[in-house]
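re: ur msg from earlier - yeah i can do the calcium ion complex, just paste it... oh wait u already did. ok heres what im feeding in:
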Amino acid sequence: MTTAIANDRINKRFDKWDADGNGTLERGDFAEEAAKIAFNFGKSADAPEAAALGAAFDGLFDYLAREAGVGADGSISRDAFVGITGNLIFEAGEAAFNRALGPVVKAIVGLCDKNDDGLINSSEFASWLTAVGVPGDAAGEAFSKVDADGDGQLSLDELLGAVREYHFGRLEVELLG
Ligand SMILES: [Ca+2]
Ligand SMILES: [Ca+2]
Ligand SMILES: [Ca+2]
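and the outut:
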């Protein structure tokens, strides 16, 4: 793992989340990202699962804004985002990472979990990757990598672990699109 890969991935995340492309992150960018993901899962904006994802992204913005020292309606610069996110991934530890990103991953599980068992099976996972724009032919290999305990189901912990591993450069599967 090199710092260059980590920074590259954090910068890509910034570009993706800066939905209006104005060079800073605002609450509206996060609302737009949440709506886009829900739409890709075929959920209308007023579906409960879509509302839950919106609330999760709202909470993530609150966290980032607090860490950046800007107000609730403030703008987060790229430098601040790279600093906060780098700290969260590489310094703060798994528990802090899971607190910050857990609600978003959990809300995506809620959108994706068609049989409502709290776990993501391989066909549900294929629809997840489609919704976040990952080519479908990568799904099978990605699934077995994320399924750390090999039980054929992806738990919230395994999915969160995969998001963290991606940013460490130890996994090539990008689950947040
Ligand atoms: Ca923006
Ligand atoms: Ca399921
Ligand atoms: Ca598993």
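cool cool. The longest helix spans residues 48-68. ping me if u need the other ligands too
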